[in-house]
Amino acid sequence: MLSSKQATMVIKILSLCLAAALSFFVVTTKMPETAFVKESMESVEESSDTVMKLSAATLSTALAISALPDDFATPLAQSLSDMNIYFIAILVILFLEKILVRYGIQLAFAVLIPLACLAGVISVVTKKTFLKGFAARLCALALAVAFVVPCSTHITNVVAADMAVYVDSTIVETEDGADKLNEAMEGGDETKTMFEKLSDLLQTAIRDMSDLLLHFQNTIRKCMNSIAILILTNCLMPLLTFVILKWILKETFQIVIPMPVAAMKKRRKGGVETSIVEEEQS
Does residue 37 belong to any structural domain of this protein? Predict the structure, then answer.
C-alpha cells in the first residue's frame, strides 16, 4: 500500500508522462492543421508576395526613370534601385518566420515539451530543484517558439490593417507610374510633348522635367514609407510579440531566465562574499 507521499509522487510522474505523450503524438500533428496556424502561414506568404511586388515595382520605375533624357533622373533611379537591399532583408526575415511556423511547432511539441516533462519526472524522483526550474524554462521556450510567429501575424493583421492598405496602394501607384512613363516615351500622339502625354496619363500637371521629377520623388517617398511599414509589421512585430510572450510566461509561471553574463557576475560576487566570511571566521 502506497503512502500519501508516494501516491502524490506517482500521480505527478504519470501526469508528466501523459503530458509528454499528448504533446508528442497529438499536439505535434494537430496544431499545424489548426486554422490559427494556417492563417498565420498564409499571412506570411502574402507578406512575401507584397514585398516582391513592391520590389518589382521599384525596379521597373527605376528603369523607366533612367531612360529619361536628363541627368537629374539618375539619382532617383539609383535611390529606387538601392531599396532592394531592404527588400532582401525583409524577405530573409519572412523566410525565417516560415521556418518557425513550419518546423518550430514540431520542435516545440515533439522535442522540447517531452524533454521538459522528462526533466520534471527526474526532478520528482531525485528531488533536484534545479531540474524543476530547467523543465519550466524548456516549457517556456517551447511555447515562445511555437506561438511567436502565429501570434505576431494575427496581431499585425488587426493592428496594421490600414498600413497594409497603404502599401498596396503604393504598389499600384508605382507600377502605374512606370507603365505610363514607358507609354509616353514609346509614342502616341506625335503633336504632344512627352510632358503633355504624361500630364494626361498621370492626370497631374507636368509642364517640365522638374515637375516630372517631383512626381517621382513623391513616389520614392511613398516607397520608403512602405518599406518602413514592412519592417515594422514583419520584423519588429514578431520581436515585440516574443518579448510580450516572455513577460506573460514570467508573470504566469514565475519563470526567470537569467542571462549568462548576469549569472557569472552573481557567481563572482557570491564567491567574493564567501571568501570574506571565511577569512572573518578564521
Answer: yes
Q: Is residue 58 part of a domain?
A: yes
Alpha helices in the chain (DSSP H): 4-22, 28-30, 35-66, 73-82, 84-99, 105-107, 113-126, 129-159, 161-186, 194-202, 209-231, 237-253, 260-281
Look up residue 67 and give its three cell numbers: 531612360
Q: How far apart are CA 146 and CA 144, in angstroms?
A: 6
According to DSSP, residue 193 is labeled -
In a domain, 138, yes or no: yes
* Alpha-carbon gap, residue 69 to 2, rounded angstroms: 93
**Domain count along the chain:** 1
pLDDT in tens, 2-44: 678 888 888 989 999 999 999 999 999 998 888 989 999 999 9
Let me know the angle formed at the C-alpha of 170 by 164 and 172, rounded to the nearest 5 degrees: 105
The pLDDT of residue 109 is above 90:
yes
163 domain-assigned = yes
Contacts 24+ apart (CB under 8 A), 174-177: 174/54, 174/57, 174/58, 174/60, 174/61, 174/219, 174/222, 174/223, 175/57, 175/60, 175/61, 177/61, 177/64, 177/202, 177/215, 177/216, 177/219
- For the record, the C-alpha cell of 248 comes out as 506573460
Place of cell 520542435: 107
Q: What is the CA radius of gyration of the chain?
A: 29
Angle at 264 between CA 262 and CA 265, to 5 degrees: 65
C-alpha cell at 279: 577569512
Q: 522535442: which residue's cell? A: 111
Average pLDDT score, the chain: 79
C-alpha cell of residue 282: 578564521
The boundaries of the domain holding residue 60 are 4-255
